[in-house]
Amino acid sequence: MEKKIFIMKIISGACIFCFVGMLVFYITLVNSTNKIIGDKDQKIVTLTKENKALDSKYNELYKQKNDNANEQLLKATNVVFSSLFDYDTKKDSIKDRREKASKFTTEEALEAILPKEATTYNASVKSVSKIKGKPQVYFEPSSDKKQKVLVIIDNEIVIDNNYPTEAKWQYEATFDTDKNVFVELKMLGELQQLDKKDN
Question: Residues 16-36, buried b or exposed e (16+ Cβ, 10 A)?
Answer without folding.
Answer: eeeeeeeeeeeeeeeeeeeee
